[in-house]
Amino acid sequence: MRPFVYQRVESPQAALAAFITAPASADRQYLAGGTTLVDLMKLDVMRPQALIDINALDRTGLGRIDAGPGGLRLGAMARMAEAAEHPAVARDYPVIAQSLKLAASQQLRNMASLGGNVLQRTRCPYFRDVSYASCNKRNPGSGCTALESLHRDHAVLGVSEACIATYPGDFGQALIALDAIVELAGPQGGRRISFAEMHLMPGDTPQFETTLMPGELITAFIVPAAPWTRRSLYLKVRQRESYEFALASAAVALDLDDERIVRGARVALGGVATVPWRAQDAEGTLYGKTLNEQVASAAADAAFAFARPRADNAYKVALGKRTLVRALLQAAAMER
Ligand SMILES: Cc1cc2nc3c(=O)[nH]c(=O)nc-3n(C[C@H](O)[C@H](O)[C@H](O)COP(=O)(O)OP(=O)(O)OC[C@H]3O[C@@H](n4cnc5c(N)ncnc54)[C@H](O)[C@@H]3O)c2cc1C
Ligand code: SF4
């Protein structure tokens, strides 16, 4: 590991002040659970010169989870395990609870924060191993090893000629499906953005992953109440059940009328795309229909209509479609 300056702060204001006073030329990072950041520092992939430890902020509003008639507010420093096990989250927003519970291991979920989760970096092996010289995300302009090498786990949606790395998280799919808002505090003041605006597709500049401005701190995620949040679920397909990243996943939320006809649908995909992926084309095929296998298959076809598979990861199109069909049929069968 390389040397760095460490500072622990007790309030969001102190976190922003610490960011501003560290030399602007230094790579400054907030340290939450450290389960992504410290990992990548040990691998020499991330080389921050200043670490601002925000763990004490979980004793402020940033650690709180509030559920009310208007929706859900998840503080960014709430731990994954706390949110997964929160009774109101599990009852009224099961897709959120399940996306967190099916992620990582219990020990990691106890440490890792919600804010850090959505900012985790890709698991592309060529990004995480500095002995590979070509990685446009780690070393802009150097090329992409994955395009010429094994790329079984890589993305088929949202890819570019510069990068095909998969967004690895699960929680992000639940947030994007439920139209979540991200609350930010920054050196220039506070603002709110939709979660859908936060992650950037790789395009020609895969080194830029989010629209956050330097020093911006995620303070909370706000999930509006909606008729589809209770009939929602997260289905994750992975190599092993104990803990593993998704090969394919689907976050779905449905509102059905008394005749079980779809009057509201939210669909997002994981494991197959470069960013948390909202599948609005799939949603559009569901409205006004009774959800059966044929209707679910048509939605899955729409979701992958623009997929760009390569030699090793073409299986992800069929797997992603099957995952979405199963998720839709299971959600339709839920008793709500
Ligand atoms: C073995 C293993 C398996 C895993 N499996 C899964 C999985 O199946 N699914 C899944 O979703 N995840 C998985 N993860 C990833 C894990 O969930 C993330 O590492 C974790 O959620 C990151 O949270 P953290 O608090 O530790 O973030 P940190 O590592 O502390 O921070 C990550 C990044 O976010 C920034 N940051 C943190 N908090 C804020 C904030 N509030 N505002 C602004 N910036 C912030 C930091 O500066 C840093 O750049 C796995 C990790 C490991 C090691
Ligand atoms: S897929 Fe992206 S992260 Fe992986 S080697 Fe290529 S540029 Fe790097």
Explain how this protein is built:
This protein starts with a strand and ends with a helix. With 336 residues, the protein is an alpha+beta fold. It is 29% helix and 20% strand. The model has no long low-confidence stretch (mean pLDDT 97). Iron/sulfur cluster binds at residues 122, 124, 126-127, 135-137, 144-146, 163-165, 206.
Summarize the structure.
This protein has 336 residues and is α+β, with helices and mostly antiparallel strands. The chain has 13 helices and twelve strands.
List the helices and strands and how they pair.
Elements: E1 5-8, H1 12-21, E2 28-31, H2 37-42, E3 50-53, E4 65-68, E5 71-75, H3 80-85, H4 87-92, H5 94-101, H6 106-111, H7 114-118, H8 125-128, H9 145-148, H10 171-177, E6 181-186, E7 189-194, E8 217-224, E9 232-237, E10 248-256, E11 262-270, E12 277-278, H11 280-286, H12 293-303, H13 315-333
Parallel strand pairs: 1-3, 2-3
Antiparallel strand pairs: 4-5, 5-8, 6-7, 6-8, 9-10, 10-11, 11-12
Helix pairs in contact: 5-10, 11-12, 12-13
Bound molecules: flavin-adenine dinucleotide (FAD) and iron/sulfur cluster.
pLDDT average, as an integer? 97
State the helical fraction: 25-40%
Radius of gyration from the CA trace?
Answer: 20 Å
Which word captures the global form? globular
Ends: how far apart? Answer: 51 Å
Q: What spatial order of strands do you see in the largest sheet?
A: 4-5-8-6-7
Counting DSSP H or I runs of 4 or more residues, the number of helices is: 13
- Give the number of DSSP strands: 12
Uncertain segments: none
> Main sheet, how many strands, which sense, barrel?
5 strands, antiparallel
Q: β content, as a range?
A: 15-25%
